[in-house]
What does this fold into?
Amino acid sequence: MKIAVISDIHGNLAALEKVLIDVESKHIDKIVCLGDVVGYGARPNACVKRVRSAGITCALGNHDEAAFSPRNDQYFNFTALEAVQWTRGRLEPESLGFLSCLPISFEIQDCLFLHSSPSNPAAWLYIVNRFDAATEFDTFPHPICFVGHTHVPRIFKSKSPQKKMIVNVGSIGQPRDNDPRACWALFDSASGKIEFHRVEYPVRIAAEEILNAGLPPLLAERLFAGF
Ligand code: ZN
It folds into this structure.
């Protein structure tokens, strides 16, 4: 089974559309999303609609949760909170209904899929480096756990004989690894092979939408550099 794993769309419709075209060209069997469909970008409702129409299985992200719950507001920085509040004010009832029903994690063929960390998925912890990853491997029984959240694509491997992996699939809508192209991962469950794919998209469109919406200009600027 070929699974396209996408994450952190963040209301960036221009990037999502280009990635879905790329995904389609690879003849995959299933698309899954690891959360943060909304937040930061100017097209949250359109992104939710596209995720739904494409039949994408989706997990809850911290920005998705923030759209319907203020419980983590104190953890967002000023710019992020401004975007959260902007998003809250514009989400349509259908979008809110979709986001509020997303599961915190799901399993497909022995693999675990979630937004942040397997040890406590609802705490929105970040697995940034191998030291963070080392404390996570014993907290899930699956051979592979796919995550998003940091917007930096990376594979962490355990040193244990089971050779577990934590795979961060990067971000579609706001990459932060100094590469502005949208990122997604192709997982072939038969061979176990994981490939990262980068997709160019019209960054200018997404940036102009952010500026025209009155969102913080930094959220537009960072898209050009991928930080
Ligand atoms: Zn995110």
The two ends are 33 Å apart (CA to CA). Residues 73 and 81 are 7 Å apart (CA to CA). The chain has eight helices and ten strands. The chain has a mean pLDDT of 97.
